[in-house]
Amino acid sequence: MPLVFAGISPHPPLLIPTIGKDSIKKVEKTKQALELLEQDLYVTHPEFIVVISPHGSYFSDAFTINVAPEFTTDFRDFGDLSTKLKFKGEMNISSWIRESSKEANYPTVMISEPNLDHGSAVPLYYLAKHLPNVPILPIGFCDLDWKTHLDFGHLIKERIMESNKRVAVIASGDLSHALMTDAPAGYNAAGPEFDKKIQELLADNNVAGMMQLDKQFVSDAAECGFRSFLILMGILQNMEHVYKSYCYEGPFGVGYLTANFSLRF
Asked: Which CATH superfamily is domain 3-263 in?
């Protein structure tokens, strides 16, 4: 079975010890959840990892596929110049995805940015701790409609299933940034409602319900993970799995969800 792992990871930079320092204690539950998720990933023996991030180079009208021979984590924007992890790039399936996207009229842009954004780097810091030689393929979403994201995920799934590699997929994304008055986006009542709703929909594998979420409601929630999750759900279409939520918390007014879609083979 080529697809061996699928999970959701938050990406607050303060999870990196050199950045979070004492504040990391406030997200201890998330840290422990990521350590559990890392164990789940490790035992699947992936041969490469697809990581879907909201924070790479962004094109409003096209998905991005980041292809480079080597990637390096980059936390300079958060005052950390010392944490540097290196990963090899996956150079083959990316071209398959690109060609298939052209045929299906899904706009994609091939980029080559070896410095990983924090949306990719934070999850990989934890989840690839014991997989340093496993190549990665970073992918970014866009402003196209919900269905196009789901369909793009299904296209990725088809290319994965045609490969002879064991593939893991990590959907990186935080939930609402508007859970309390001192949250990054301030408080919006849509924030807590969105976080509750998205967890219910994921637990029920209710993709139709996700597709029906109002765009203004999602925007008011000030989230950054919903489209990552839509791509992941497209990848998981017709795959039997058991959803396991390891942790949800929002101590800084941002919702952090860690979850595993345990695949049944």
From this structure: LigB-like (3.40.830.10)
Sheet containing 70-73: order of strands: 86-88, 70-73, 115-116
Is 61 exposed, middle or buried (CB count within 10 Å of its CB: 0-12, 13-18, 19+)?
exposed
Q: What is the CA radius of gyration of the chain?
A: 17
Handedness of CA 145, 112, 14, 232 (dihedral sign): positive
Which tens digits make up the pLDDT trace of 19-75? 999 999 999 999 999 999 999 999 999 999 999 999 999 999 999 999 999 999 989
Q: How is the chain split into domains, by residue range?
A: 3-263
Q: Is the pTM of this model over 0.85?
A: yes
